[in-house]
Amino acid sequence: MLEILTPLWILAGLGLVFGLAIGLAAKKFAIQPDPKFEQIREALPGANCGGCGYAGCDAYARAVADGSASPSACAVGGAAVSANIAGILGVEASVLEKKVAYVQCSGECGVAREKMRYDGIASCLEAVVIPGNGPKSCTYGCLGFGTCTGVCKFNAIHVENGIAHVSEDLCVGCGACVSVCPKHIIQLMPLRQRVRVQCSGQDRGKEVRELCAAGCLGCGLCVRQCESGAITMVGNVARIDPNLCTQCGKCAEKCPAKVIKIL
Fold first, then answer.
1. All domains of the chain, ordered by start, with CATH?
2. For residue 113, which of 258, 198, 215, 213 has the smallest C-alpha distance?
3. For residue range 38-54, what is the model confidence (pLDDT) as tens digits?
4. What is the pLDDT of residues 76-133, one digit of tens each?
5. Are the C-beta atoms of residues 201 and 236 closer than 8 Å to each other?
């Protein structure tokens, strides 16, 4: 019996010694948490939306604490959270311009023509890969199946009459819908920019009219009307530079397709 118990006692003793040694080593060499990280993490809203460019609030808080990220990158928290974090760091908070998601499409039901009936999975990510690139004749427009609504944590985007619409009062500009849209027609736009182009199509002239009654014709008339040089043609569709636009509205007045809107 002694021959059996002796090895067990030895193993138990070794386990106890090694356990104590590991515990003492862990305590001695433990990395103390950065108090700034704890304070910054507590100041963040905890949405974990990724709008700051990091995987979540923890990752963003660590990046701010070690100086590799701006304290003003939290779109959800806005100016109040930015000021709070800047106070923790002892720096001056920069002004965070509010941005909102904007769907660059006017192809609602009855406006954008359909070339087929779609009975598949109600997902833009699924519909976009079928032959024909979706049920609408315009291959650039919103598919209207609401994949963007599923990723929005703030209930700010909904599909109405065949296309996605954004509620600017609820949108925090996190960019989740921008990332998931397979057509790449959702962009972040400064809230102050009220003159916007509601089309992403690259077709032109007569072909546009055959596909969608609310498509940009690519005529370039808006470019010639703009006195500040804010409008350029990107392919066959007009695009407005918010940094140059004076929001005079002349482009909207002259647009023959009425796809430039003053919101």
1. 35-89 (1.10.15.40), 97-192 (3.30.70.20), 193-263 (3.30.70.20)
2. 213
3. 899 999 998 888 888 88
4. 888 888 889 888 988 887 777 889 999 999 999 889 998 888 888 889 999 988 887 7
5. yes
